[in-house]
Each structure stands twice: as structure tokens, then as C-alpha cells.
Amino acid sequence: MNETRCYVCGYSDFDERRVEYVYRRHGKYLIVRDVPCEVCLHCGERYYAGATLLKIERRFKALAEQPVRSQLTLQVPVEAFA
Ligand SMILES: [Zn+2]
């Protein structure tokens, strides 16, 4: 038996969804929409395929190192909770 279980809660029911993924490295961000993942139906933990994360990382590097334009650039306000 090869049942996949959630590492967080141990539940084994997942749903395939497309979500917004926020990639962050060295204070820079890339928000990627419609990223496929498996979501635990019990606790909401998201699981991404290695190839999916690699693709996001490559896109982030391409945008950071080369004059490649993203589809959209957002300015995001950042505050500490007070
Ligand atoms: Zn879970």
C-alpha cells in the first residue's frame, strides 16, 4: 500500500488546486499565479512537485539576472505588526 499522508496532520485526502505562490529570496519576491499543487483537505498544507518549484526558481533567477520583464509588477507595502 502506498498511501500518501500529510506530513503535518497525517490525513490522506488531497485535492489538486492552483494557487498563488510567493517565492522569496534575499529580500526579493516573485508572486506566481495558478501554480499547481496538492492541498491537504484537513489542514490546508500545500504540496508542490519538485519540478514546479524548480521552474519558479528558474523564472525568479531569469527575472533577477537578465532584462526580462515579468507580466506584472506590484508594489507591496510592508509593516511590522504593532
Ligand atoms: Zn494536513
Primary descriptors:
82 residues; single chain; alpha+beta; globular; 1 helix; three-stranded antiparallel beta sheet; binds zinc ion
Describe the structure in your own words:
The protein has 82 residues and is of the alpha+beta class. The chain has a domain of 51 residues. Helix content is 20%, strand content 33%. A three-stranded antiparallel β-sheet has the order 1-2-3, covered by helices on one side. A hairpin with a 5-residue loop joins β2 and β3. It is globular, with a radius of gyration of 16 Å. The chain starts with 13 loop residues before the first strand and ends in a 17-residue tail after the last helix. The model has no long low-confidence stretch (mean pLDDT 91). The protein binds zinc ion. The site of zinc ion has 8 residues, from loops.
- Biggest sheet features: 3 strands, antiparallel
Give the structural class. Answer: alpha+beta
Mean pLDDT: 91
Helix count from the secondary structure assignment: 1
Regarding quaternary structure, how should these chains be classified?
A: single chain
Rg value: 16 Å
Strand content: 25-35%
How would the global form be characterised? Answer: globular
Helix content: 10-25%
Bound molecules: zinc ion
Q: Measure the end-to-end span.
A: 50 Å
Total strand segments: 3
Kindly report the spatial arrangement of strands forming the biggest sheet: 1-2-3
Order of helices and strands: EEEH
Contiguous low-pLDDT stretches (5 residues minimum) are: none
Short précis:
The chain is 20% helix and 33% strand. With 82 residues, it is an alpha+beta fold. It has a domain at 14-64.
